[in-house]
Amino acid sequence: MITALVLMNVERGQINETAQRLLEIPGVAEVYSVTGDYDLVALLRLPRYEDLAEVVTGKMTAIPTILRTHTLMAFQCYSRADLQQAWDLGVE
């Protein structure tokens, strides 16, 4: 599974609409509105690198309200939920 974060600048006043359109794209797991230099961050989970290319350069660029993207590839996941599951014996 390939995990990537896509940081986006979006047209003013179009954050909610753009986020909803992004969620319609297969492989877009979550979308966050954020503070700072970018307006939205999308978390992508895809089975193949080819799918990543299709989503970012094909489907996301087809959304006219997205002005700019910056894609980050994840090497490794560090998650409290994963750690808890690893050590959870199921005994309460």
Automatic annotation (TrEMBL):
It comes from the Bacteria. Residues 6-75 form the Transcription regulator AsnC/Lrp ligand binding domain. Coiled coil: none annotated. InterPro entries: Dimeric_a/b-barrel, Tscrpt_reg_AsnC/Lrp_C. This is AsnC family transcriptional regulator. It comes from Thermogemmatispora argillosa. The lineage of its organism: Bacteria, Bacillati, Chloroflexota, Ktedonobacteria, Thermogemmatisporales.
